[in-house]
Each structure stands twice: as structure tokens, then as C-alpha cells.
Amino acid sequence: MFSFLNIFRVVALLEGVSYSLLLFIATPIKYLADDPQYVKLLGMPHGILFILYIVFAFMLKPEMKWNNKQFGAVLLAAIIPFGTFYIDRKYLKTA
């Protein structure tokens, strides 16, 4: 069913995929092929997903009973490539 946790898991997955595409495909194309089209295409959706990820993390902190170290890891995962996939497996899938 639709719960904040399930929505957060979807947002985390999409944020991780968009970040990976932006970092490993769009940015090299921008600098190697001098074509910023893909960065412009992926930048806005990734930014929105990043903000949603942070907002949902704050909303879920009390429900998930994350301590400060766990919550810091959840927030830090948004800026580390593939970090959201790790968080999903470690903290969200077992909930």
C-alpha cells in the first residue's frame, strides 16, 4: 500500500538512478562531447528528487526511530554515488 516508507523507497531509488545517470553519463558527455543537453535534461528532475529525499528522510526519522548516526548516514547517502541503494538495503528494506 502507499505509505511514507514505500514512497521514500521509490524516491530513494529514483534519486540514486538520476544521480548516477547525471554523474556517470551526462557529465562526461557534457565535457567530452561538448554537449550540455543531457545535464540540462537530468538536472531538474534530479534536484527535485534530491529535495524530496531529504524531506521524506526528515518526515520518517521519528517513525523509523533512527538515531543521529543513522539519520546522518541517510542524509549523507543522497550525495554519495549509489548511497541511496545502500540505505534502502540497510535501513529501509528491513522495516
Indicate the topology.
Elements: H1 4-32, H2 37-64, H3 68-76, H4 83-92
Helix pairs in contact: 1-2, 1-4, 3-4
How would you describe this structure in keywords?
elongated, mainly alpha, transmembrane, transmembrane helix, DUF3817 domain-containing protein
Describe, in plain words, how this protein is organized in 3D:
There is one protein chain. Helix content is 80%, strand content 0%. It has 4 helices and no strands. The chain is elongated.
What's the number of helices?
4
CA-atom Rg in angstroms: 14 Å
Poorly predicted parts? none
* H and E string: HHHH
What fraction, in percent, of the residue positions are helical? Answer: over 70%
Q: Give the overall silhouette.
A: elongated
> How would a crystallographer describe the biggest sheet?
none
Number of strands: 0
| N- and C-termini, Cα separation | 14 Å
Structure class: mainly alpha
Portion in strands: under 5%
The overall average pLDDT, rounded, is 94
Overview in brief:
The protein is mostly helical and 95 residues long. The chain has helices at residues 4-32, 37-64, 68-76, 83-92.
